[in-house]
Amino acid sequence: MNWLKTANVIALVIFTSYLGYSLVLPMYVKNTRGEDYKELMYGCDHAMKEHYIAKKAIEATPNGQTIKNLQASELSLMTCHDYDKLRKEMISSGVSPEELSMIGLETMEEKSYDLEHFIKIHEIRF
Asked: What is the dihedral angle through the alpha carbons of 19, 23, 29, 32, rounded to the nearest 10 degrees?
């Protein structure tokens, strides 16, 4: 009879550990690292756009300034490395790629609102 209690305790510990790992850990990671993920994702998106613009500028007018701009934009791509590392860490902690996509959509909605507000304030009206 004592071995039955021990087996039940072991089964309860295993079940609780599994539940904690599969449900609690992803929620914890998403809530604690979600804002970092948003910032890095937006920063990476911005860096890739700046890099694309700098490459196109060199194609249009290759000179010393456009080359410096390209080099600076390449340095800002380090944000993408940090974003990729955090994404992989979050996925390995149980956050699904679909949940990360939702966080990304929230980021773009938040940042686009900020951009629209900024444009309305500073736009020159004719």
From this structure: -100
Provide Rg for the chain, Cα atoms: 23
Would you write out the chain's pLDDT as a tens digit for each of its 126 residues?
A: 688 888 888 888 888 877 777 788 889 999 999 999 999 998 998 899 899 988 888 888 889 888 888 888 888 899 999 999 999 999 999 999 999 999 988 887 777 655 565 566 555 554
Q: Which amino acid is at 119?
A: I
The answer to whether the beta carbons of residues 68 and 49 sit under 8 Å apart is no
Question: What gap in Å lies between CA 78 and CA 68, rounded to an integer?
Answer: 17
Question: Whole domain around residue 68: which residue ranges?
Answer: 2-122
CA distance 114 to 64: 34
Q: Structurally, how many domains does the chain consist of?
A: 1
Backbone angles phi, psi at 124, to 5 degrees: -85, 125
Amino acid at 76: S
H helices present in the chain, as ranges: 2-19, 25-60, 64-76, 78-92, 97-122
Q: Which two tokens stand for residue 50?
A: 């700046």
